[in-house]
Design a protein that fits this description.
Elements lengths: L1 H19 L7 H21 L5 H5 L7 H29 L2
Helix pairs in contact: 1-2, 1-4, 2-4
Amino acid sequence: MELLIGLISGAVGGNAAGGILKNLNQGTLINSIAGIVGGGLGGTILGMIGAPDMAGVAGEAAGLDLGAILGQVAGGGVGGGVVLAIVGAVRNMMNK
């Protein structure tokens, strides 16, 4: 469940970053793909550094803790935006 939330919020974060940073915008498809990759990486990195996952916060039965979900959404969105910024910068450099 955590991965799915990270991937979806990554796609949203990638498209939001593309909308805000017009010079790095690569179109909806590339923004979404970069965001999905970044969302997956962001969620994985948060898990590796010890950020609580949904199952670990409130026990196995009540695994849908609001704080953990918001953490996954934030991590996925930021990860998606960062990867999009990197992809956009690299593609802009290659076009020069």
